[in-house]
Design a protein that fits this description.
By secondary structure, the chain is α/β, with parallel strands linked by helices. The chain has helices spanning 78-84, 91-100, 123-134, 149-154, 156-173, 190-204, 210-216, 290-302, 321-334; strands at residues 7-9, 23-25, 114-119, 139-143, 220-223, 227-230, 233-236, 239-248, 252-254, 282-286, 305-309, 337-339, 343-350, 353-362, 365-371, 373-376, 380-382, 396-397, 401-402, 417-419, 432-434. Helices cover 23% and strands 22% of the residues. Bound molecules: flavin-adenine dinucleotide.
């Protein structure tokens, strides 16, 4: 029956073995699929975006740009791309989107009930869905934006790709310490660095892709915003999924501090900095946590003059102070400058365009510092709004995230707490399982 395709192993092609393995009937297999063109090939984002103009024809800007829509391609909605926030739409980013948000994805017909529904397909959600499907559970995975979440798209993967290039630059610059003399200037081709990052990100995207989860792992993949409508129901794209257990793995977004003028200024966050195609000569970084510092180091080594601002007297306030000192020393050796005890007065820009000026008061009195780009890296805000958590009787706090441990949620003791913990302000990206 396995060879005849009546059923198959839930994880991969296995010969039938008399072991405790999990098989699924092929007739049950509608897990969502890519849209197809008349010639049966998969629809690709590359079909919908205008070819990227040659570099010399592009307007030089430090702000991430959304490419112009090709007017000949009728069904492409510009708003889609704006929502994705991934640019430039070159072949690598088109390939990435084909994996993590396929154009025209066809959701499966919902099963009568799911053992597990996972909301959010970042690192936490993908692992939960794959693990449960691998032991035979009927699983639905809902993602409103990009499968892979922050880590693949705008977090660990692109940042580590940049750090690798930054390390190469530093090794070459410091080579004389090892008796290796390099004549002439060392310069970094930022366009190449960013293109390399986009290529690497696209090349590993298949692991997190909608097609892998639906076709190989047997997970029902829904691309749309999930909203709880009852304790055991969630709605996505107008369909209602009924479940026994659910994982909330909606992660978070960059928290933006309340500094006058900042909202009107063209600031970057982790969601947009990886779209840059030109190196800012002067980069301000508000926030001295791990995200701000790793990007500060990378950009300094690429050739930006980077200044890191911290409200306190140190960097990495949650880490071991001795370790933080070592990192600070290393960043200073790279040329990063620091402004501690920063009391931000306001941020100024030219009608929302760079340069951006930070006006602050610190140990040196009131002063203004001008930048070509400003990165905000002051922590994460959990994505709990609009999830319908009230309908599922799940308590939450907009700053701390989903609350599942009694005694730490004020008056509200969560009824459905099963396992997990209350997210801490710096680390709200935690998957919560309840039943
Ligand atoms: C610059 C940077 C570098 C980092 N480097 C590292 C590193 O080196 N190592 C490391 O371990 N961690 C790193 N991190 C942290 C890591 O990215 C996060 O810990 C991880 O992404 C959290 O995964 P998550 O699944 O909890 O949430 P996310 O990745 O945020 O995924 C949540 C998903 O839920 C979706 N979603 C939200 N609401 C809904 C809804 N209503 N319906 C459907 N879907 C929804 C979102 O679109 C998103 O895709 C880094 C982060 C950043 C920003």
């Amino acid at each position: 029956m396995l060879n005849a395709g009546v059923f198959h192993h839930v994880q991969d092609a296995h010969l039938f073995e008399n072991k405790y393995l999990f098989y699924r009937f092929t007739s049950d297999e509608d897990h969502g699929t890519v849209a197809r063109k008349p010639d049966d090939s998969a629809v690709s984002w590359a079909d919908f975006v205008a070819p990227v103009a040659p570099a010399e024809a592009q307007t030089i800007t430090l702000q991430p740009a959304i490419p112009e829509r090709d007017p000949d391609l009728a069904t492409f909605a510009q708003v889609d791309l704006e929502a994705f926030g991934i640019s430039p739409l070159d072949e690598y980013n088109a390939r990435l989107l084909d994996r993590v948000h396929p154009k025209g994805w066809v959701d499966p017909k919902p099963k009568s009930t799911y053992n597990l529904v996972v909301i959010g397909a970042g690192a936490g959600g993908l692992v939960s869905a794959a693990g449960a499907a691998g032991v035979g559970a009927r699983v639905a995975l809902i993602e409103s934006h990009l499968l892979g979440g922050d880590c693949l798209n705008v977090g660990c993967v692109p940042s580590k790709a940049l750090l690798r290039c930054a390390k190469a630059a530093a090794v070459v610059r410091n080579a004389s310490a090892f008796g290796v003399n390099i004549d002439g200037n060392v310069s970094v081709d930022f366009g190449f660095v960013m293109e390399r990052m986009r290529r690497l990100r696209a090349s590993i995207a298949p692991i997190d892709s909608a097609r892998r989860f639906s076709e190989q792992l047997g997970v029902d993949v829904f691309i749309g915003k999930g909203t709880f409508t009852a304790k055991n129901k969630i709605e996505v794209n107008g369909k209602t999924l009924t479940f026994a257990k659910a994982v909330i793995a909606t992660g978070g977004t960059a928290a933006i501090p309340n500094i006058p003028g900042l909202q009107e200024a063209p600031y970057l966050t982790n969601a947009t900095i990886f779209n840059l195609t030109e190196l800012p000569s002067r980069l301000g970084v508000i926030g001295a946590g791990p995200i701000g510092l790793e990007l500060a180091q990378a950009f300094q080594r690429f050739g930006s003059q980077v200044t890191v601002f911290s409200r306190s007297d140190k960097i990495l306030p949650k880490e071991d102070p001795d370790a933080a000192k070592i990192i600070e020393k290393s960043l200073r050796q790279d040329g990063v400058t620091f402004a501690f005890h920063a009391n931000y007065k306001r941020v100024e820009s030219r009608n929302g365009n760079p340069p951006v000026t930070i006006v602050l008061e610190d140990g040196s009195g009131e002063r203004s510092i001008e930048f070509d780009a400003l990165l905000i890296a002051t922590g994460r805000k959990p994505a709990v709004r609009g999830l319908g958590l009230e309908s599922a009787s799940v308590s939450y706090d907009e700053r701390m995230g989903v609350c599942i441990r009694s005694g730490r949620c004020g008056e509200q003791v969560p009824v459905y707490a099963h396992r997990g913990f209350y997210g801490t302000p710096g680390h709200p990206q935690r998957a919560i399982l309840w039943s």
